[in-house]
Design goal:
Largest sheet: 5 strands, mixed
CATH superfamily of the largest domain: Periplasmic binding protein-like II
Structural class: alpha/beta
Order of helices and strands: HHHEEHEHEHEEEHEHEHEEEH
CATH class of the largest domain: Alpha Beta
Number of helices: 10
Number of domains: 3
Shape: elongated
Distance between the termini: 63 Å
Number of strands: 12
Strand content: 15-25%
CATH architecture of the largest domain: 3-Layer(aba) Sandwich
Bound molecules: 2-phosphoglycolic acid
Length: about 325
């Protein structure tokens, strides 16, 4: 195709000018276009002035309050839509090549991920329907082993390993609370001293659990030991044991799930709680993250956080 015929359009800035032109034509107003594009109105006017000079023909006429396309403006509008359509198709093709339409994401998360990861992934897949997702849920120790073997694309830890060859990025708050059954004698107490709470029968997670590690560190800080009555290997089993009246425990608040449900579990008002913890994205420092993994990280940072913040707000955290 000879480009001599179209050389007047091959100038720097024509595409942004067309963006402004398209918005004015669609909205029938310079000020509404400026608003939609987050531009100052004089900027919009300058862009249209330049585009009109390039075309050598008037593009808009004002009738009353509304701006109308002239005949050359209507031709330009049709061409503009074709150009944007072609660019949009091109972007789809590029996405295919980059892997977003057929890519795969293998995400591995710690056990509390059970309560939020499926929903985040569902929202992500809705935006990127071609992406195939696999979710691994394990305790901290198993996740560390998988990370060392580079078995997954990306990890979410609550207590990431402190190693130089690992990259961590804080994503969301993960408060830890003391759970008890609603008829527990301390259920209505305020500012329960840690030493008083420590006298209660305690249900603890299995060795290798990050939650267990935090519990042990906390009791060490208070120079005391929990009165462990039972060890259980899942958060759900601990919740059931609390409901069965077997004791209290420290778990992530998210073990209640993201929806507010009727439950007999209550949080005890123990001094120092909730413990301010967070979730982190983790990957080996040398790892070349796939486009899908990077896109998912951006997605969680920008959009999926709201899901969790709404939950925290609902629960008064
Ligand atoms: P976990 O997960 O207790 O299942 O290991 C939480 C954490 O890593 O702290």
């Amino acid at each position: 195709m000879s480009q001599s015929k179209i050389h007047r359009y091959l100038k720097h800035g024509v595409l942004p000018q067309l963006t402004v032109f398209e918005a004015i034509a669609r909205l029938g107003s310079f000020s509404r276009a400026a608003e939609e594009l987050f531009l100052a109105q004089p900027t919009v006017s300058v862009q249209i002035k330049k585009l009109t000079e390039t075309a050598g023909l008037p593009l808009f006429e004002q009738v009353g309050k509304r701006v109308h396309l002239t005949e050359p403006g209507r031709h330009l509008y049709a061409a503009c839509r074709q150009i944007f359509h072609a660019l949009s198709n091109l972007e789809d093709t590029f996405s295919d090549i980059r892997g977003l339409k057929s890519g795969r994401l293998q995400l591995a998360v710690i056990t509390t991920g059970t309560y939020f990861a499926p929903r985040m992934l569902a929202a992500f897949v809705q935006q990127h329907p071609g992406v195939e997702v696999s979710l691994q849920i394990h305790n901290r120790q198993t996740l560390i082993e998988r990370l060392a073997n580079n078995e997954d694309d990306l990890y979410i830890f609550a207590n990431p390993p402190q190693e130089p060859e690992v990259v961590t990025q804080m994503i969301l708050p993960n408060p830890l609370v003391v759970f008890a059954r609603d008829d527990h004698p301390l259920a209505k107490e305020k500012n329960i001293p840690f030493e008083r709470f420590a006298q209660e029968p305690f249900l603890i997670r299995e060795p290798g659990s990050g939650t267990r590690m935090v519990v042990q560190q906390l009791f060490d800080q208070h120079a005391t030991k929990p009165w462990i009555t039972m060890e259980l290997s899942t958060n759900e089993a601990i919740k059931q044991a609390i409901l069965a009246g077997l004791g209290v425990s420290i778990l992530s608040r998210y073990t209640l799930g993201l929806d507010v449900e009727q439950t007999q579990l209550v949080t005890l008002n123990v001094e120092g709680f909730p413990l301010e913890h967070h979730w982190y994205f983790v990957h080996p420092s040398g790892k070349q993250l796939s486009l899908v993994a990077k896109t998912f990280m951006d997605f969680v940072r920008i959009e999926a956080k709201q899901l969790v913040y709404d939950h925290l707000a609902q629960n008064g955290s």
